[in-house]
Amino acid sequence: MPAPSETYAAILGATAQIEWNALEPHFARGELLVVDSGLDLVTVAQAFIDDDSAKVKDWMAQGLLGAATDTQAADWFERNPDTLWAVVIRPWVLMQERS
């Protein structure tokens, strides 16, 4: 298996577990994108950095990546799960709920 790129390592270092209340303002501004738990959050972030629109569009078309919905936000507010992870790739915040 090849070693991760420097970009991948940098994104990994900037990825952290986070509480919903810290993500809520980003949701309110329409900046929060949800990454399906079947994808690698760091790989998705790297696609944004690399401007790999084909991958991003494909994930969106498959429903694996998209804007957080009001229903999801209400659920996270109610449950306040401790399994949320996020990374900032301006202007977006990419988040993922891990099981």
What would you say this structure looks like, in words?
InterPro entries: DUF2288. Helix content is 46%, strand content 21%. The longest helix has 10 residues, at 70-79. It is an alpha+beta fold and 99 residues long. It has one domain (25-97). The two termini are 25 Å apart.
The gist of it:
This is DUF2288 domain-containing protein. The chain has 99 residues and is of the alpha+beta class. It has helices spanning 6-14, 20-28, 41-49, 53-61, 70-79; strands at residues 16-17, 32-35, 65-67, 84-89, 92-97.
Distance between the termini: 25 Å
Radius of gyration: 13 Å
Number of domain units = 1
* SS class: alpha+beta
> Helical amount among residues, as a percent range?
40-55%
Order of helices and strands: HEHEHHEHEE
Tell me about the largest β-sheet.
5 strands, mixed
List low-pLDDT spans. none
Strand residue percentage: 15-25%
**Count of distinct strands:** 5
Mean pLDDT across residues: 95
What is the secondary structure topology, with strand pairs?
Layout: H1 6-14, E1 16-17, H2 20-28, E2 32-35, H3 41-49, H4 53-61, E3 65-67, H5 70-79, E4 84-89, E5 92-97
Parallel strand pairs: 2-5
Antiparallel strand pairs: 1-4, 2-3, 4-5
Helix pairs in contact: 1-3
